[in-house]
Amino acid sequence: MSELVRTALVTGGSRGIGRAVALTLARNGLQVYLTYLSKASEAEIVVEDIRAGGGKAKAFCLDVSDAQGVEDFFHNEIKEKIFLSALVNNAGITRDGLLLRMKNDDWDSVLNADLRGPFVCSREAAKIMVKQRQGRIVNIVSVVGQTGNAGQSNYSAAKAGLIGFTKTCAKELAGRGITVNAVAPGFIETDMTAALNEETRGLYMEQIPLKRFGSAQDVAEAVAFLVSERSGYITGQVLAVNGGLYC
Ligand code: NAP
Question: Is the CB of 155 within 6 Å of ligand 1?
């Protein structure tokens, strides 16, 4: 097992927070396997950036809401091929709408990608990490999973569910040397938030004590800490990276 290359798997590593996490973990010496859904070219640019910096990386197309696809991926690409040091469940989507107009499809796609995806990835990763007797799982949740947010009943339910999932997995896996934590970003400048209008951005800004939106790198630093050996006595926690947003 020790000859296998120590690797972090980052879902949704082609853009935004996942990209920053992938680059940061690679700088910290881990090989990075990053996944994407549709933007292969963006994922390849991240891989090239990591390789240009002397690191190791590979990109894989993987829809985290496709359970069979995730199981096949772990069987074909991860199991007995790498030492799975860390899984970062970062891939996520939003399909916003007020409750009275929320379509079943919008509910299902968000719950499938943002909650079922991390569940299936974590289960498959845990099977491997249990044998290694070592591993880190970090789930990217959201401040809205802690506070709620009008227009995001699907997304906030998925992220609140992922917080409960994190705490339960932490208890189940602690005895096997595996820690499970969550990072809860506030308002971070990525493609996901780029579509928000100036008025909404202004309303958020008013509520952020540090008076700036977060960067993907702000989140990546927290993830890197939870993946590192320095966080060995921390499990089942939610680390907020939100500029004080809900204080
Ligand atoms: P983003 O810029 O929209 O990037 C999303 C990433 O997830 C992309 O790499 C995308 O792949 C991938 N992805 C989407 N659906 C997927 C699926 N079904 N299977 C596999 N990969 C999929 O998002 P972001 O803003 O960086 O957000 C990353 C995480 O942070 C999400 O979980 C989000 O909920 C959370 N978060 C974000 C903020 C924020 O303010 N931005 C705040 C709180 C929490 P492609 O490139 O191929 O499309």
Answer: no
Written as one letter, the residue type at 175 is G
> 0.85 cut: is pTM over it?
yes
CB atoms within 10 A of CB 52: 8
The residue to mutate among 93, 162, 215, having the most atoms of ligand 1 within 8 angstroms of its beta carbon, is 93
Q: How many contiguous H segments (helices) and E segments (strands) does the chain have? A: 10, 7
In SS3 terms, 76-113 reads as HHHCCCCEEEEEEECCCCCCCECHHHCCHHHHHHHHHH
Encode pLDDT of 48-76 as tens digits.
999 999 999 999 999 999 999 999 999 99
Element (H, E) at 8: strand 6-10
Ligand 1 atom nearest residue 113's Cα? 18
